[in-house]
Amino acid sequence: MRPCHTPGSAGRRAAPLTPLTRPEGSYDGRRIGHHAPPFRTAKVGTRFEAAQHDEKFLAWVEMNEAVLELEFDDVPDLPARPWDAEALDIAEAAALERFSSAADAFTNDKVPVAWQFVRLLGQTFIDAFDGFWVNLPGSEEVSPRVGVNLPYRTMHIEPIGLLTSAMNRRTGIEWSKVFTYVAEDYAEYLKTR
Fold it and tell me: I need a surface site. Which of 26, 81, 139, 177 has the fewest CB within 10 A?
């Protein structure tokens, strides 16, 4: 497991406990046309920082490794980690077989399976692009969600948003398309380091 980017994080893949900032003039990962959900701009502040200390969130992050090792035995074509765009197409096809819509994915009896895909999506971006899990606090309009912070982006990736958009669009390539865009951004970011 790759450790979080903050001192004292004890190897957790959770958010740093300091505000998310980027150095002056560095590549911010924003591309025209790629700002709509499933991405959300970080709202750095007390609520965000407090959400990173939430015990339920930290326990969820800690158990992800073990859960990911066990949960995809029923997707035989899924390659071993680290996953890439091709693996995301395989996983998306499996999700499309299991869920008839985004609403269906989050019916009571299917929520545990939906969360398997949320974990897979987030972990794929974390492993490929040096990211970490963040706990995005809710508001009156938006429920709290887990997200993935990538150090070179000003916006979080929201795996739940990726799952719901793929289940609604039903193209079979939604996840790999986002992965490809993020890979392009990551390549540009690496040029500036």
Answer: 139
For tokens 């795996």, the residue is 159
- Count of CB atoms within 10 A of residue 147's CB? 25
Decide which of 144 and 79 is more confident. Answer: 79
- Residue 120 to residue 27: CA distance in whole angstroms: 27
Q: In percent, how much of the chain has pLDDT > 90?
A: 58
Tokens read off for 35: 């700002």
Report the alpha-carbon distance of residue 90 to residue 15 in Å, rounded. 29
Give 33's DSSP letter. Answer: T
Residues 6+ apart with CB under 8 A from 123: 64, 68, 81, 83
In whole angstroms, give the CA distance from residue 46 to residue 28.
23
Ramachandran region, residue 47 (left: φ > 0; alpha: ψ -120 to 50; beta: rest): alpha
CA dist., res. 106 & res. 179, Å (int): 23
Q: Two tokens at 71?
A: 């949960």
Question: Could you give the CA distance from residue 135 to residue 110 in angstroms, rounded to a whole number?
Answer: 22
Q: Measured between alpha carbons, how far is residue 89 from residues 44, 143, 182 in Å? A: 33, 28, 15
Cβ–Cβ contacts within 10 Å for residue 148, how many? 26
